[in-house]
Amino acid sequence: PPPPPPPPTPTRDSIRRQRQMCIRDRSWGAIGTELCGVYDGLLGDADGVAAWAESRAAGAPGTVEMARSLYRAVRDDLERTESAAVTGRGLATPAAVVRAGRGSAVEKNLLLLKLLRDHGVAADPLLISTRGNGAFQDRYRSVDQFDHLLVRVQAGGLTHLLDTSDAFCPFGVLPPAALVEQGLLVAAGGGELTPLDVPAPETLRKFRTGALLGRDGGLRCRTEVTFTGYQGIQAKRELAEKGERAFVEEFLTGRFASVRIDSTGITGAADEDLPLVVTVVYQIDDYAQVTGNAFRFRTPIVCTLGENPLAKETRDCPVEYCYPWRSEEIVQVRLP
Questions:
Q1: In Å, what is the CA distance from 246 to each residue of 62, 137, 222, 287?
Q2: pTM over 0.85
C-alpha cells in the first residue's frame, strides 16, 4: 500500500488557533495583570531617559502641551525599526531605545509611556490588532491576537490615544491602520477590553478652480487644492516622497494630457496641525473646439477617478472604509 500522506505543515494561523483554544478559560483581567508585570519590568530601566527628555519637554505650558512635546520628540527624534514584538519577548527597554537612537513602533510607544508617567501624566498601554492583522476576537483570550501597542493618555479632562509610528499624524490622531473598534487596556490591577472611541478628524479634499478661456480655445487656470484630515496626512506623505513638482504634476497630468505648469505654491507642509494647501497656475492649449463664435469644451474638473475602485465582479465581504471622507470641487470659467 502507498505510504500515508505526511501531516500538514503547521501554519502561523493553525498554531495561533491551538494556542487560543488552550488558554480560552483565562480572563482578560488575568492576562492584563501578567502584562502589567512585563511592562513595569521594561519601564524600570530608565538610565538616561530623563536627561534625553529634559530639553524636549522644557517650558511646555500645561499637561496637554507637555504630552504633545514628548509625543513629537519620540516620533521625530528616534529612528523607527521593524519588529513584531508586542508583549515583552524581544522588546528593548526605554533606556536601550534612547541609547541606540532607534526602536520599533511598540518600543517607541513604550518610551513615550515611560516619559509621560515620569512627567505626571496618566498613561497606560493599549493593545490592538491593526486592520491588516485581522479582526479581534474577544472570545479567544490570547495576546497573540495583538500586533501593536498604543498609549492611552488622560490629560486636560480628555482621553487621547497616541501612536508614534506615523511621522505625519498629529497629536491624538491615529494612523488608519490603528482605527479599530476595541483593544486591551493594561492598567494597574489588570486588563479590560475597551472601545477606541476616537473621533476621526474631518477629512476633505477641496478643489477650487478659476479658469479663463481664450478666443483661440486655450485655457488658463488657477487651482487651489486643500487637503484636510487623513487626506492631508496622505498628501503630505506623498509630497515628502515625490517632491513638489512631481506631486503637483501627478494629479494634473493624469487629468489633462497637454497641461503646462507655470507656477506652484504649497503651504502647511511643515505644520502637522494645518491642512495642506496646494496652489498651481497652468495652461492647456486647444482645450476648447472653436467654431466661429461657439466654443465646445468640458468643464475642467480636476478631481476625477481614472478607474473603477470597486472593480471586483464578486465580493465575499462588505466594503469598509476606516474613516469617512468627502470631496468637493468648485469650477468657475470665464468665457471670452
A1: 41, 43, 18, 23
A2: no
